## 1
Amino acid sequence: MTTPATIGIDLGGTNVKTALIDANGSPLSRRVSQYDPAIGPDATVELIAAAVDEMRSERGDSVHLVGAGIGCPGPMDRAAGRVINAANLPGWHDVPIRDLLSRRLELPVAFDNDGNAAAFGEYWAGAGRGVQDVVMLTLGTGVGAGVILAGQLLHGHFDNAAELGHTIVVADGLACGCGQKGCLEQYSSASGVARRVASAIRSGSASTLAHLVERADANDAAAGVDATTVADGLAAAAIVDAAAVAEAVRAGDELCMRIWDEACMYLAIACVNIQHTLNPARVILGGGMAQSGALLLDPVRAHLAKQTWKLHNDQPEIVLAELGYDAGMIGAAGLAWRARGAAGG
Ligand SMILES: [Zn+2]
């Protein structure tokens, strides 16, 4: 008696997660491989194949593999299975990763972007179980997102649907790395919250985190980096992160409380807009911000109740993600199951 499984792969900028996932979305075996994308696509495929071989021999004859799925950073040509110019995969230009993997693993490979894969994971095996219409927001370095309507991932004409982190919540607001101003991710991502706190402290606002910002800026200065002009990867973001801000909120730090509450308010505004455009049953919140649990969930729910219309009681339920950092890997495996006609829908 062997258990059929698919391989779920989550290709990130610093690690690759690989797992064997059964038809119910449970990992049977898993590997996390640290890597540098600069090793190139061929070496990365070998790394994944080695992880699969290890898991296969670990499970002996008890598992047989029926497919694989991979979630990759975008932008991508989904139909062709190619990564085009992912910011998180430096040096990868127009790489046919789906077919490279498929040849090496000798299995059909499902392919989508990482935000969609994570959303599909939560829909299939996490906080979206039991409903057919869900939106997932991953509040991390940016705001990743995925939309599932009637059990299907929404891709759009340009394959770029669900870029909800770049919906505008503040007219003429903070500049975003995408070229727009006032994007949701500038206010409600884990990095955005940390950046706003650091910038308010630099402008003279009192906060218990002031010493951390000072230390981070000193590190940046020593490294020759101007922390106030670098959007990401600055020491301030690493030292003053969303977890530090959340802790300061719990301790009653007024600056952090204000910026945290604004993050929740802008998320609620995004949820109202999601409600009226997509009308999902649930909006699932994941990523670094969601680690703080009720500290995030309660104010988002309260702001949503206040901001939404009163014509009809159709606001989505706001819930926390359940799969954590496994969502992308499980979702990629789910897409492989879906390609075989399983995995809900
Ligand atoms: Zn943007």
## 2
Amino acid sequence: MRKWIALLSLLFPLALIAQDVIKVGIFAGIKSNGGKLVASKGDYIVVSERDTLVIREGQSADFRANGEEIRVTVNGRSKTFHRKLTFRINGWDCEFSLQPSGLKQRTYYDNLNVYAKNGRVIYVNELDLEKYVAGVVESEAGAQYTKEYYKVQSIISRTYALSNLQRHQKEGFHLCDKVHCQVMFGKVSYNDDILFAAYETQNQVLVDQDINLITAAFHSNCGGHTVNAETVWSNSLTYLVGVPDTFCLNMKQSHWEKKVPIGEWESYLKEHGCTLLPDSLDTSDTLGVEAREFFRGDSTSIRLVDIRSKWKLRSTSFVIEQDDTHAYFKGRGFGHGVGLCQEGAIHMAELGHLYPEILHTYYTDVHLIDRKLIDFFRE
Ligand SMILES: [Zn+2]
Ligand SMILES: [Zn+2]
């Protein structure tokens, strides 16, 4: 018996990775007791035990929860459901707009499940994995980049989604639509290249040497050199190691400046036992990992990540200069510096580099494989 349980727990994540449909908790965390759905593209149906309500393209359905019951009205006809109601696509390319009462409407792909619990409703968008990936990429990356860059983001977002499918298991869906998982405002609305990029890289994920999905960390701009995972987090990872990067050097987020009143800066240093105040100090002159870890005083040191968080700096790569009034931080990059540098990747794509080369530049010793072949490769 024990053997079977062990085997099942091994097989379960694999079964999830082969998942073609993702359940996303949308409008997650809002308090809603009902709203309105419009069939914005194609027809939708609501199947009950006895018959079917049809919502033709352009028509709408109103629904409201009362305790565990949920009542839906379409064209003057009403039906009551217990706990769950599904608006199902009647075709392969359908979209619905959803407006929970009092909130702004958003448009989504595929099916919608509505659950009633204590008079509140929970919305779960059940959609094709690649459409989900495209929705995330547009919500998180914006609509102004090349298709090749969107392929890079698609693979990162797909890899992340598939390694986090158990996050909201208790709530009845895989992932929420907020920063906690990955932001998804709905369908791709501003650039169709994003949808093409998701399908042109269909099923491709990044795995490490042991064929495990990687933690595909990324940040806005590394300032010229990415850093090892353990510089920022507690664990090292074989594929998250610092690499030089010249592609991001002249991009939007490559430089920043911040000034701090000299008194505040001096007392901060004193509090941490650092009394050494050279006229100018450069944390990035060697660009090595060691140099980026510590700000060194006479006998003690402060971690650069702590300086960054205390003074709300954009990165840990900076020069400090001082005069009688202020300490001036002149920095490079934006973000934690681990994994893929987004502005470097954007520039590589603009220069004509293809997505596998871009991914292999920032993630060390990884493989790009079809998620459905993961168990094959593991054997
Ligand atoms: Zn979440
Ligand atoms: Zn970079």
